[in-house]
Every structure is written in C-alpha cells, then in structure tokens.
Design a protein that fits this description.
mainly alpha, 2 domains, 199 residues, single chain, 10 helices, 68% helix
C-alpha cells in the first residue's frame, strides 16, 4: 500500500516537475518560442498547475534559475570557492570541477536557458533586476578567491573579478555546446591561468 501525498507534498512535486520541464522547453524552443501550455504539457500537468505555482512565464523562468543555482553542484562550487585555500591550487581544482560538469552534460540545458534569459532580460527591466540579483547575490570584499596574488585578475576589485569570471563561465559553457572541438572544457583551466598570469 502506498502512502498518499499530502496536499503540500503534491504541490512541491508538481512544482519540481514544472521547473524541470520549463528548463527543457525554454532551452529547446527559446523563451519567445515557448508557452506556459507547452511547459505544463511537458510536465504532464495542466496550465492551471503552472498558474497555481507561478505568476506567469517570467516568474517561472526566474524560479528555474533560482532552483538550479540552489542545487548541490552549485553549492559544491561555492564551498570550493570559499574554502580559504591558495588561489593557484584552488583555481586548478575549480577548473577540473568546471570541466567535469561541462563534460557530463548535466549543465547543457541550464546554459542554454541562461543565455535565453539574459537576452530576454535586456528587453524587460523587471526581469533584468531579478536576474542581476541572482547572478550577483552579494558583493565581496578584498581579492576574489580565484585571483592569484600578483596575477592580473588580482588587480581588479572583487566585484569586477567576479564579473570577469562569470563571463568566462557563461561564455565558455555556451561555446563548449556550440563548438566543443574548438572550445573543449579543459580550455577553462588555460583561460584561468592566463587571467592569473604574473603582470
């Protein structure tokens, strides 16, 4: 005999199904080319289920972003970055972690959806503000953990170094999807070394 889910448990299960379906639909069809109805159908739910969990397509998009940023792989990256280790050693380990995730393919749809959302945000100020809050949650101080002392990246304030590294992450993630033979995941480590080269 199976246990019946409580109303709250069923709602959480539906919400997760919608988030997973939305990521795939938005990545495959683009934000403009997809609808709430398509997301609901992909999740095996009704359009009403979408609107009982989200205010609409933009709210759903941002919820997907929040959900993915809260997942374990992201949490692991954050733990790694804030482990207090020396930047050179940390950079090499972070680059290996980045390449493994890129090679594994588990980030492919998220990378596509992130680019879609960024383009959408350039045309919609309210979405832009929400996206900036997600991409740059807190302002750090001092030297960025991946900025090796004496390297070029260390010359930048924390926020600027963080923006450069996020640009590298997003740009290379997309290029590994578009042209993996020209931009293999291991190139991330090379780029990080160049940014940290002594000036």
């Amino acid at each position: 005999m199976t246990d019946r889910l409580t109303r709250q448990e069923q709602r959480e299960r539906n919400r997760l199904r919608l988030l997973e379906a939305a990521e795939k639909v938005f990545a495959e069809r683009g934000i403009q080319g997809s609808s709430v109805e398509e997301v609901a159908a992909a999740a095996g739910l009704t359009k009403g289920a979408v609107y009982s969990n989200f205010d609409g397509k933009e709210d759903l998009l941002l919820a997907v972003m929040r959900h993915r940023l809260a997942q374990e792989a992201r949490a692991q990256a954050e733990r790694l970055l804030h482990s207090g280790r020396e930047a050179g050693e940390l950079g090499e380990e972070y680059a290996r972690f980045w390449a493994e995730r890129a090679r594994g393919g588990d980030q492919d749809t998220f990378a596509q959806m992130t680019v879609e959302l960024m383009i959408h945000a350039t045309r919609h100020p309210a979405v832009r503000e929400e996206l900036l809050t997600l991409l740059f949650p807190a302002s750090g101080e001092g030297r960025h953990p991946l900025a090796r002392e004496g390297g070029g990246l260390a010359d930048l304030p924390y926020d600027q170094a963080d923006a450069v590294l996020k640009s590298l992450d997003i740009g290379m993630r997309l290029l590994t999807l578009v042209a993996p033979e020209r931009c293999p995941p291991e190139l991330f480590a090379t780029a990080l070394r160049l940014l940290n080269a002594p000036r």
